[in-house]
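Hello support,

Our group uses your service weekly, and this is the first time we've seen a run hang past the timeout. The protein is Sulfatase-like hydrolase/transferase. I'm not sure whether the cause is the sequence or the server load. Input pasted verbatim:
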Amino acid sequence: MRFKISRALLIASATFLQTIGLASAQQVTGELGSPGATSTIDGKQLPAPNPAFGGTIENDALKSKAWWAPRIVPPSGAPNVLLIITDDAGFGVPSTFGGVIPTPTMDRIANNGLRYNNIHSTALCSPTRAALITGRNHHSVGFGVISEQSTGFPGYNSIIPEDKATIGRILLDNGYATSWFGKDHNTPAFAASSIGPFDQWPTGLGFEYFYGFVGGDANQWQPNLFRNTTQIYPFEGKPGWNLITGMADDAIGYLTRLNQTSPDKPFFVKYAPGATHAPHHPTKEWVDKISAMHLFDDGYEKLREQIFENQKKLGVIPQDTQLEAWPKNVLKPWDELTPEAKKLFIRQVEIFAAYAAYNDHEIGRVIQAIEDMGKLDNTLVIYINGDNGTSAEGGPLGTPNEVAFFNGINKMPVEVQMKWYDVWGTEQTYNHMSAGWSWAFDTPFTWFKQNASKLGGIRQNMAVSWPARITDKGGLRQQFMHVIDVVPTLLEVSGIAAPETVDGIKQAPIEGTSFAYTFDKTNANAPSQHKTQYFEMMGQWALYDDGWLLSTKVNRAPWEAFGAANPDPLNNQVLELYDLNTDFSQSQNIADKHPDKVRAMKELFIDEARKYEVFPLDASVAARIVAPRPNITAGRTEFVYTAPMVGLPQGDSPFLLNSSYTITADIEVPEGGAEGMILTSGGRFGGYAFYLMDSKPVFLWNLVDLKRPKWEAPDALTPGRHTIEFDFKYDGLGTGTLAFNNMSGLGRSGTGTLKVDGQVVATQTMEHTMPMILQWDESFDIGSDTLTGVNDEDYQPPFTLTAKLNRLTLKVDRPTLSQADISKLQNAEAIAVDGNPIHHMQPGPQ
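Update from on-call engineer: The timeout came from a worker crash unrelated to the input. Re-ran successfully.
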């Protein structure tokens, strides 16, 4: 009888566990129903179903039994996770893999764990990051390109679908504390305002805490910074404050609070600093350290050779790896540069190197804080160097202002750039370096970020440590991997299942392959488990299949964003074939020896492209920036504001470029006069402002910090109510179909007229206008100016308006795009930004 009772109790207990969503194999601590009980979940359904009440309820509480649902925790032994991904850094950047830039933190992780020399990205930043946090290919989660280039196709709309939950959401619902620091480039540009929606912000994607910036780049001295979904403004940085240190401080503070509040709760931290994406903004301390090392005095070709030799000595590349000749047809050899160009280029790269070293140091502070808490032993640290190859978007000459590149200026003369030499890397620049250095930092590979068919664009490296599990200290792993493999790895090592449903939505399969098997020394040389992987970015594509790589020949350098796009990216290509089993650096094209292999792999690429929503292929670059997309201003031509408002991002604000517009302000000037900002959008490196200076109305355009056309009333406004207006007539375009002449409708001339109480007080014609974007990390502000000022010679932010603003009206006479126009934008037509006129601008205000 006793046996029957015990068996009945066991059956009843199992049934009870099933009813509360707890499988019998799951782990329970404490007595179920008590306040301190915890349990794992099977994880098939997220969030876990509410358990049935396990107590008893009578008419009065004294005869009833209270019962608490167990707190959900991860499986016993599940590690803390620190997932680090840096920005725009190629294979040859860190010292851990032969680079000359000191990265002792990455060295520490590698020496205490493993080096990986065969992990891949998508060739562009936010696509890689979307793949990283979902475990799916970038087109599968809507990020075929960055959000600022998004188009209305599933693979390109920059919206992570609800059937592909992030690792943050999965770990959160399984009991982890989840957080995200630094760059978020996975919120659609058209959903980044303070009114949301917030489902595509980090906090809506499963990360409980977010501290960072939403766009693709940020001024590290004056970032457009958020905590969760609230803009941090007024900006409270101390003199010399820098976001690289600021986010390390915030991460350490967060982890300390977590440790002191709930020391047993495991954490998942995504740590994504802006370094080394442009602008390159290190502190002077690090610039001085790197400059004193004289690492780059011999030029970029010698740097490349030195990195290559270092890599072979370290054993992170095979000894028989081939280094291709310097691409003289793409980048001018060092010995052909003028002394002034050499001086400038060395300054550019020292700032970049200081930024990389500084960033690695601050990452080290976070890791040291974890160790000081006694938690490093059971913390899985994944340190991925770069989300793509090194960026060449500064062009062959570099630039003091990356915003200029995105407006068609990629060859600013050296003598013009030298005007910023002494302030390079400070808040006065939005700087990038010569692409010659970028080629060297991708050693032993060729090409850059954006080039998805070359390993220089897609081959990253990575260091991983987990002292409690990884014992092969300093080992090298050479198995093929992709960033989509990180999510299944984290699920495997934590003992957490991929969910079948999330919020009632059936989940698509994880597309990556766990690399947890490589943690064991016995598997150091095991075959790669990730066998096949496609790559595609802006019409350049490749396919990896069990050691073979089929790739398109590079037909566009990254700085050539405004040329004619390939009309048939699938077929209008020169195909190359490489055997990466014997050719580590992708240097020996053997397509002519294996025509059948080329044909078969192309068919396999097509199959993979169909499977993962890569079609329709689109080779356009800049054209997609100005293509139509959702926006809270879409369909509106008039905007009215009656109160100050700041922080509206560029993707959600009225767009004035390539249009006629009228801005009218109804204001009241107090006795004694007034000053301050009425309306501004953009900042020091590109934008416009409408303001009062000593009671005089002023309208100013900052054309990528090269020209500053200004309209100023000659007389101060008298006390009382006034209407001031700025009217701009854009030449050749107005309401109706945009008459494209090979896209030369962009950046054309126009005439601006400033009026006070209906009277014209200033008229000026702008020979050229900004064609593509304002400064992306600045916002549309009314009543004051956040972050940097458009004209720092007149005022300093916040420059609060001291007049009363009754009403501000903005009317835009925007050209209407026909479907034919849109097709031209997205396909074959070249963008001739009015003959690239801004090339001819001279620096300084006008």
